[in-house]
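Subgroup meeting minutes
Present: P.N., E.W., G.H.
Scribe: E.W.

1. P.N. recapped why we're keeping a running log of single-chain structure predictions: easier to compare across weeks, and new members can see raw inputs and outputs side by side.
2. G.H. added today's entry (462 aa).
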Amino acid sequence: MEQKQPQLHRGLEERHISLMSLGAAIGVGLFLGSASAIEMAGPAILLGYAVSGAIMFFIMRALGEMAVEHPVAGSFSRYAYQYLGPLAGYLTGWNYWFLWVVTCIAEITAVGIYMQFWFPDTPRWAWALAALVLMTFINFLAVKAYGEFEFWFALIKIVTIVAMIIIGLGMILFGIGNGGVATGISNLWKHGGFFPHGISGVLMSLQMVMFAYLGIEMIGVTAGEVKNPQKSLTKAINSVFWRILIFYVGALFVIMSIYPWNEIGEKGSPFVLTFEKIGIHAAAGIINFVVLTAALSSCNSGIFSTSRMLFNLAEQQEAPSAFGRLTKRGIPGAALIATALVMLVGVYLNYVSEKVFQWVTSIATFGAIWTWAVILLSQLKFRKQLSAEQAQRLTFKLPLYPYSSYVSLAFLIGVAALMAYFPDTRIALIIGPAWLLLLTAVYFAKGMHRRQHGQAEEKQAG
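Output recorded in log:
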């Protein structure tokens, strides 16, 4: 009698997937990185976040259209394989795996920095290592344990932002914390106008704004482990746009109404400033705790998604078969350990040379655009393969198809062109394609193209 193989466990509840989609989009970038984006564009950064948010909504709906019909682990890598060809699937899977490995290295390094706020005499690497071990252990427990931790991590971030928005609105409308004098919103145009650096300032900030959204597409990676994919994925994806508006645009609207935008970058985190203004003197400690959970949350999500992507690549015979094995709890154990070990090397590299780390992270920024573009191209091909009747029966359609797909693709190409134009981000357009060329060389050197061609012929003959 043939023994039944363990399968990925569908242990993620609707509340897990719903908060994970939001938690992935709210990272350290909003709490600390928003200051540099404000510096580039001034109050017009609100426009950058709103337009980019709309594009991300279309990308997520394109992913959702396919994920609801075919809920599988490593979704967009599998869809690229199915609709764009084996090479596209292979490149997308390995590219996304590396993208999140790099992001996790950055996050656990950040954990070390944040812990030094309370323990200044301890070595940074010790906290980074502790964070990596803890997050790997959580991912090993069960998919439900991962979902539970991610739920609470996301909740901490959400509560902090909602509190700041409510406090800020109280100050803007009623002068709470400002001696009863309502601040109003005149700061949005007082200091050089709404576009202090013109449209070019907004364009310069776009790549930073888009990469703040990196992680939203992770909903698709969880598709193979969601209890009720159609209901949970539909709800999570539909809520992405208005949540982005509230948490990004809403928070930054409040901050820039209270403070002149040109002072924010000089005085540290905008969130710390807002809490201090209301009279909460422990603001720095509170925000430090929140950004610590944000970093742990991002690392937790990264380890989850990279291990699933590696598992998916092994299933398609594009990674060692050992990575396709599951534990009794339905966790891809070997893929999880391999990912954690690579992150360990990355942490070491980061402390040896900061420059090496900057080069590696530039691949991650390029990788984000590649991933989103592949989602859109896969969806276009997916639709073209459907008959009019099948397209009509789709339960979760991309709005304004096909125009929304083409506009989103054009926007991503535009952001890539802007990255090539500005010297600070140009390196990503050199290293990113070089990384894809290296992966392609391995693909052909290992003879994967011949194996895929043989499988396709077998399928046709059958």
